[in-house]
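DM from R.C. (forwarded with permission)

"hey, sorry to bug you on a friday — could you get me a structure for this? deadline for the figure draft is monday and I only need the backbone to look sensible"
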Amino acid sequence: MFKHSIFLRIYAGLVVLVAIVALFAYLLVQIINYQRAQEYRESLTDGISFIISEGIARQQTVQQKIDWISDASDLLELPIYYVDANKVDLSRAEQKRISQQKAAVRYDAQNSIAYIIIGLKNDTNHYLYVKVDKIGERQMKALPIFILDYLVYYPGQEKEYLAKIQKHFSYPIEIAKVQNLPLDSEQIGRLRLDHSIILYRDSATVRGTTISIVSPIPSTPSEVLVLGPVPLFNWMPFQLAAGITLLSLFVLSLGVYGLILPMQRKIREVNYALNRMKSGDLSLRLPIDGTDEMASLASSYNSMSDHIQRLIEAQRELMRAVSHELRTPVARIRFGMEMLAEEDDYEYRIQQVDMIDKDIEALNTLIDEIMTYAKLEQGTPSLDFEKIVLAEVLEQVATETEALKTQKEIIVEAPLPSVIADAERRYLHRVVQNLVGNAVRYCDHKIVISGGITDAGMAYVCVEDDGPGIPEEDRKRIFEAFARLDDSRTRASGGYGLGLSIVSRIAYWFGGRIEVDASPTLKGARFTMSWPAKRFAKSNKKKLGSKESLDN
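My reply, with the result:
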């Protein structure tokens, strides 16, 4: 059922598309956040790496540098190594960062360990290698100590040099008055005891939660060194969320457009075909691609076009044939009327009146045949299906035919009375009557009528004769309106060429088919009409349907 419905495919496609877009958005967020986290880690280490590099550069000897590094390691409680540059394999991006006096950070996500590589000022032969396996208050409170150690060399110019190194920090650093900070008495007391404090601020703004480190300056008790506020890493900032949402909606809209585009293209084709039909061109047919609703619509359009075109052609042919058929009896009536006007013999006049009456009866019969054929051809019959005993219909037609004194032997091989099929009695009687009448005209001596139900559940009626039969190349043409294989013989027998056409249309509306072949026993023609013995619809009214069962 899934492949037969374009709407189910679209709905399922939307579900799959939403899942794919959600997965795509998740992976994109992870990739972007991985890069953002790396940039965040690097931004936090750039400033302090510069200060550490400056501190080591002030040491005169290698031993002094090693001692300074050892003190820094103890202060940070982190292992710091003074390594040869040729032992460290740097990528091009890491080399570029170190050349810009920035730190290179390598993060091991599995073990949650960061490795910081710091270039040394005036020492290209060594790198400082820091292993960061923990970040706590001890490490954060140690950061101001390195900055104050740097500012010790510039007494009285602390603020000026602080402003110069600000470019190396991603967060603000400044010297501020204690009274200008939003501190409580406990925090001020801790500053007076030369203890650094950490301030947490949770804001509803884009910055979110921030951390500030406040450290006392020994030389000026009224002033403190403030680092921050430093924003904590936000995994889903507003800009990223908005960007990912817009991108996801864009990808989703493209996917929806891709799902709708085939249906839109097919609807455009149908609309174009309908416009062509409206202009009178019925030759265009739609391609049938698949088995979904659009394919069904294309098939229905093609069937409708075929039906309309066939109706128009049948109407034209009917008009030509009717005008031709009407000329002969009308001409005979006119001739008879002229003879009546000129003849005084009473008996001859009575004879002419009888002939005129027969011609009028022939006209009535022709009109009745034409009306029946037109009603069936235009797809308007209302068929009242009921349970029919096939034997009753076959025997009724045989009895009616024998009453006409045709001098033909009619044999009825009727099925058992228990053989019942769903049919419209009036039209089934008309089928058997037309087939038997056709056989009477062309047989030599014998006609066999039979019927029944096959193992496949198809009901059938069959009429065979011992006449000359029908050539194989003409077996389809005989079901066309006013078709005659032998005009002179048909006219002599009184036929109009509509009987088999009516049978063909009744078979179509019964949902069956009519076939003709050679009789295996009588060697003449054998006509067999078959149709479903049981109707599957709840209603017994057969409505106008698609042309699937017969195309004669």
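R.C.: lifesaver. Residues 487-494, 537-552 have pLDDT under 50 and may be disordered.
me: no worries. The chain has four domains: 1-135+238-260, 162-235, 285-380, 382-542.
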